[in-house]
Amino acid sequence: MNALRQLPRFAAPLRSAAAFSTTPARPLSKMQLIGRLADSPELTPTSTGRDVIRYALGVSSGPRGEDGNRATSWFRIASFVEGAQRELLLSLPKGTQMYVEAEAKMDTYQAQDGSNRTQLNLLQRSFEALARPQNRSEDSTTGAESETNAVEEPLSGVGAS
């Protein structure tokens, strides 16, 4: 009991008007995703002449269904990274497991049929390539795919852990 009384106190005393920051609060809309690339990222020019990388990420969640699969949500992501990060992102194959941090924004637009639609737009701020896709080879006798390498190989290099 004596040892507990001698421990230093790390908690600051409570104050009625504690200021944590002198900068005004800004709105924050951020998403963190871990999922697999739906296809290789594509580089497309914008109307301003700047290049944008677009890709989709599939994120599985929830319990497995009767078919053995989990529910998958698909997210479309845009990125304006440059340099080594850009080259790495463009070189990633379909199925690569990624961690992505992105700004999220809901936009409403009018579709061709005249109806109003809402879309979630994600602008990538950072990413990490976590694992290469699992290698699958086609069995020549049954035509079915079989896993030849069930263990995922971690990636290394820029943007990877």
Automatic annotation (TrEMBL):
InterPro entries linked: NA-bd_OB-fold, Primosome_PriB/ssb
Organism: Friedmanniomyces endolithicus
Region of interest (Disordered), residue spans: 130-161
Biased composition (Polar residues): 140-149
Protein name in UniProt: SsDNA-binding protein, mitochondrial
Entry annotated with the keyword DNA-binding: yes
One GO MF term attached to the UniProt entry: single-stranded DNA binding
Top-rank taxon: Eukaryota
Keywords recorded for this protein, A-Z: DNA-binding
Statement: the UniProt record of this protein carries the keyword DNA-binding: yes
One Pfam family linked to the record: SSB
